[in-house]
Design brief:
alpha/beta, 7-stranded mixed sheet
């Protein structure tokens, strides 16, 4: 059996899954769609993605998995409008024409697309690539997607564009602006062609994968948007939990279960600040209540997908270790695991709905565990002023976003400290005369 190092998966809205076309010809063909995409109005694109989100939300989980409702919320017109306003200086009509920004009437500004956006999609959560693809299309950039080894779900999602149309935009036309290719990691020649033809390089993945992408030669004016290896955790104080214990664990259980912690914004450690000498069991009680919520989420909302035997053994080994070092709350199977211990610091991630609950005497001390790999910090701090001061203190050394618990898994701008759609356009100015 001959293993193909390059495959044209999808182009012109048609499935190929062959190596009959070379990459450079596919790129030339994709570029021919630039004029059509540039001519579409941003309001019409927003209408289309809102309709696509509704289509996905109402689709069977057997077709698209358990996270479609989560993604469809991102695609809503209300959310994407907010994202565009945040990223493009308040007036996203600049995507269509020259407009006035700020209070200065001397200049007009227009946001032009950079051209071809190339997306390297991580294999562990391939559906996350949809976020950057939608952002690129909204800013009128063509999309060339290097799919992971298992691309079945991503392929289904992109193909489903064809089944949605609005008054102004046909999904069959929009999907022509997307090309999917598979390139083996050892196929350096095609990897370099991909990189050299990118006006935007968007990389999702771990440290090794991202380092490999960054080492590829690129054009001088290529923009890099890196969504690399990150670590997330949650921080709650005892005052917050007094009236919010069950609600807090339910919301955190969702944050943990969505994407099975393979997304960079999933919490792996939950710190509970406990200065209450009269309640020494607060942290352990929280861990037990969290286990109840994990079971509820798994049973009623987000059933866990099947995992490999190797990952199951990894989880069972970790449980055995912490039967001696702490206390483990878990079902007989490996659907979820809550581990309580008196250890300090951030736990090494196990993924697959394994979460560590630890105590911290003073939340302000958590900064000593920080570095630039920290991404999301789920916050449950009761006092508003203290919360702001604490976030300012700890994010000085790392951490890019501090959502409330229950919102950690929601994708919004900025992400990893950058406004993605702003990086996907070139700002053109002209004198307003």
């Amino acid at each position: 059996m001959i293993l193909l190092t390059f495959k044209n998966i999808l182009s012109d809205g048609i499935l190929h899954e062959s190596s009959s076309d070379d990459l450079e010809s596919l790129i030339v063909n994709l570029k021919s769609k630039q004029e059509w995409l540039h001519s579409q109005k941003i309001d019409d694109l927003l209408d289309y993605f809102d309709s696509l989100g509704n289509y996905w939300k109402n689709s069977s989980t057997d077709d698209f998995g358990n996270n479609l409702k989560h993604i469809s919320e991102f695609l809503s017109r209300v959310n994407l409008t907010k994202e565009l306003k945040i990223s493009l200086r308040g007036n996203f009509s600049a995507l269509d024409d020259f407009v006035q920004l700020f209070d200065d009437s001397e200049f007009l500004y227009h946001a032009q697309p950079r051209g071809i956006s190339v997306h390297w999609i991580a294999g562990n959560v391939d559906v996350l690539g949809i976020f950057s693809v939608v952002q690129a299309l909204l800013t009128k950039n063509l999309c060339l997607i290097k799919v992971p080894h298992d691309y079945s779900l991503l392929k289904k999602l992109i193909l489903s564009f064809k089944y949605v149309s609005t008054e102004k935009i046909s999904g069959k036309d929009l999907v022509n602006c997307i090309t999917l290719v598979y390139i083996d990691r050892n196929d350096i020649s095609n990897q370099e062609i991909l990189s050299k033809n990118a006006d935007i390089r968007i990389a999702w993945g771990g440290e090794e994968a991202v380092s490999t992408i960054l080492s590829l030669k690129k054009n001088f004016f290529t923009e890099d948007i890196i969504y690399g290896p990150k670590y997330s955790y949650a921080l709650l104080d005892s005052e917050f939990l007094k009236d919010n214990l069950k609600n807090s664990t339910q919301r955190l259980a969702l944050d943990i279960s969505i994407f099975d912690q393979y997304a960079c914004n999933s919490p792996h450690t939950i710190f509970i600040e406990n200065n209450d000498a009269d309640n020494p069991d607060l942290v352990k009680d929280f861990a037990k209540e969290l286990s109840n919520s994990m079971e509820t989420v798994n049973r009623l909302i987000l059933p866990k997908s099947q995992i490999s035997e190797k990952k199951s053994m990894n989880i069972l080994s970790l449980r055995a270790e912490y039967d001696f070092k702490g206390e483990v709350f878990a079902p007989k199977n490996t659907d979820w695991t809550v581990i309580y211990s008196e250890e300090e610091g951030l736990a090494d991630p196990c993924f697959s709905r394994v979460v560590f609950v630890r105590s911290i005497k003073n939340a302000e001390q958590i900064g000593k565990f920080h570095n630039r790999k920290i991404q999301s910090i789920g916050i449950g701090i009761s006092d508003h002023n203290r919360r702001k001061k604490l976030i300012d203190l700890i994010t000085l050394l790392g951490g890019d976003r501090c959502p409330s618990i229950g919102n950690m898994s929601k994708f919004h701008s900025p992400w990893d400290g950058i406004f993605g759609m702003d990086r996907m356009v070139r700002w053109i100015s002209m004198t307003n005369q």
